[in-house]
Amino acid sequence: MVLLALVGVVQQMAGVLLVQRFAAAATPPPAATPPVSILKPLCGVEPLTELALESFFLIEYPDFQLVFGVQNAADPVLEIIAMLRARYPLRDVALVVDSALHGSNRKVSNLINMLPAARHELLVMSDADIHVPPHFLHRVVAALEAPGVGLVTTLYTALPGTAHLATLMGANQINYMFLPGALLARALGRQDCLGVTMALTKKTLAQVGGLAAVANHLADDQMLGRLVVRQGYKLTLAQVIPATTVPEANFKALFRHELRWARTIRALVPIPYAASVLQISLFWALLAVVFTHGAWYGWALFLAVLISRYAAARRIDKALKLARVGDAWLFLLRDLCSLVIYVYSFIGDRVDWRGQMMRADTGRLPPN
Length: 368
What we know:
By secondary structure, the chain is α/β, with parallel strands linked by helices. It is 49% helix and 15% strand. It has helices at 2-24, 49-57, 77-87, 106-114, 136-144, 165-187, 202-207, 220-230, 251-268, 270-275, 281-291, 296-320, 328-345; strands spanning 36-41, 64-70, 92-97, 122-126, 130-131, 149-153, 157-160, 197-201, 234-237, 243-246, 350-353, 356-359. Strands 3-2-1-4-8 form a 5-stranded mixed sheet, with helices on both faces. The longest helix has 25 residues, at 296-320. It is globular and about 65 Å long.
């Protein structure tokens, strides 16, 4: 148990070093600034929706178009779009309202409906709950113009949308587990595409079969990334980290959301996911206390692991200039919750995505 607890601590510290290195990396501007169409598929209103969408109106870039899409003409998010268009009348904005479905993934169906409205060759697809800095497009375009790159994605941090404890736990997971873990996975050779940002050209998208190729997959982002890599292109990270809203205002919603993530990842990369239980270091440290019958060295290990987790979180906060999400005690509650979700992820493969039940598939590519 001691060894298993230390494995999680080592992984965490390695991830922290990668976060610090990423944050300190040089960010040269792009050699050119071609026009860009940003596609924003929308569905409903959550905490901070207006703030997130407004951040795209505030992007500083010479020429870009915003394309918003909804599938329901009565969607309340349309009121926010109308308000933002009135607030920023000089922005190039297109709105698509189309209920047509092209597969089991409604988000991809929305994107397919929106694509004809995109006027530019360079596309950036971004989730509705993402908050970006003004230099967002400069960093994305700079990454995409690198030799051999076919698809650009971004990491992300968490922005709590409510003051509920469940929201803080969700943000804690993203900032202190997902973020360093994603960089560590990439350092070990994985090329994951994260759906918060997917930037590529229309030509590349056509080469992989268009959005229709991922319309029946839950993990459309991972499928798109795998298809692009199979064409011989690189999948790279832009040197920018936007934030995603954590909207869950109760533990039931948080459990449902994180279970969807867990079952999706288990289906896509089963072996790394199975090994991810080692990251739940406080669980193993607590087991060490039990198996040592409460001996002082068992408690010393537990306290050392807790302090190391808290110190690692503070280093991430400092590197990325983040607000603290949770005190030291929250890491114990967070790990216990993560353990429950980990166990439940192996009991079935169905997930709830905005009220739609879908099956987590393996993301296996069809033959060429």
